[in-house]
Amino acid sequence: MSKPFDLLTTVEYGGCSAKIPAGLLSEMLKDLPLAKDPRLLVDVDTHDDAGVYLINEETALIFTTDFFPPICSDAYEFGEIAASNALSDVYAMGGSPLLALNLMMFSHTKIPLEVFGEILKGGDSKVREAGALTVGGHTIDDHPPKFGLAVVGLVHPDQLITNAGARPGDRLVLTKTIGILVPYLADPFFAEIVRKIERLCIEAGYWPIVFSAHGRQSLENNALSTLRSQRPAGALIAPLGRSSDFESVRRFTEEVPTIVFDSNVAVGEAFVGSNNFQSIGLIVDYLCRTGEPPCFFEMPPVNPNANKRRDAYIQSMERLGHEPQVIRVGSGG
User: Fold this and answer.
1) Cα(324)–Cα(310) distance, rounded to whole angstroms?
2) Residue 167, CA distances (Å) to 162, 171, 210 in order
3) Nearest 5°: phi and psi at 315?
């Protein structure tokens, strides 16, 4: 592999944003019969992180699975994140991981095989760190890729932790997650922004959760609803702009501390952005002075800034006496 393969070029939905919305999933599952057994200590009724089955008075079995599409560029790092996410379900129930199976969906015709190995290596490193064993797995030829684990863990029945176990007077420890929402994750501009924000969040002790609207208002609303239900410490969002459901965005920012970037829709705690006509003008001027006049690669516009950057390029080229060259490319990254 001549250079590292960027996994973010394969996805539209990143991480948990690929999940079916919780409300819709409940509707889909409502008519399915539920398993009932006196040894089943935790089932789907409490929406816990895993199922728990009583083996004897000293031991209960925890069983869980989790997988999702890439949320970062690096294959090894994606493997680490996906495995940690699955293993954390066992810890959330008060147990310790014992065994793990790899779950891999991967297109061997579209992605270098070295990437497959790096994802598995990253996942196995976290399984080993948890003191568990990877004992096999299952693969499906599919695109975009997805990776995760099925995990078996153990817990003493008296030390089991569930969503239904809280009592008045219990101390709550709030997790520090940060939501990130962009219009289109396959756009290199937003992919790079997300990569940097993720790194900064992790370095500051927060866990980033990435969502993509894919240029669609309905998906932006679903992402905001899902993120709000997770009660994050805050969020950084780049709304679609004119295509957004403004009331949905406004309600979200009233409940979650929010920094808006790229597309200013006059909500949230603050806005971070740039003057497109100034910045693009400076870029075009510099490139014309130091080399050949630049062309402009345009993806389908996902918010007003995309059109502003194109218009700024055209104006700058015409001001400098050059013919603008706007090349429209597909939306597949």
Assistant:
1) 10
2) 11, 9, 32
3) -60, -40
Could you give the CA distance from residue 237 to residue 260 in angstroms, rounded to a whole number? 5
Task: Using DSSP, state whether 100 is helix, strand or coil.
Answer: strand
| H, E, C per residue of 31-84 | CCCCCCCCCEEECHHHCCCCEEEECCCCCEEEEEEEEECCCCCCHHHHHHHHHH
- Which 8-state DSSP code applies to residue 254? H
Catalytic residue among 16, 72, 201, 295: 16
For the segment 31-72, what is each residue's pLDDT rounded down to a tens digit? 888 888 999 999 887 778 899 999 999 999 999 999 988 878
Distance CA 225, CA 163 (A): 20
Tokens for 205, please give them.
Answer: 């002790």
Q: Distance between CA atoms of 326 and 4, rounded to whole angstroms?
A: 28
16 tagged catalytic = yes
Length of the chain, in residues: 333
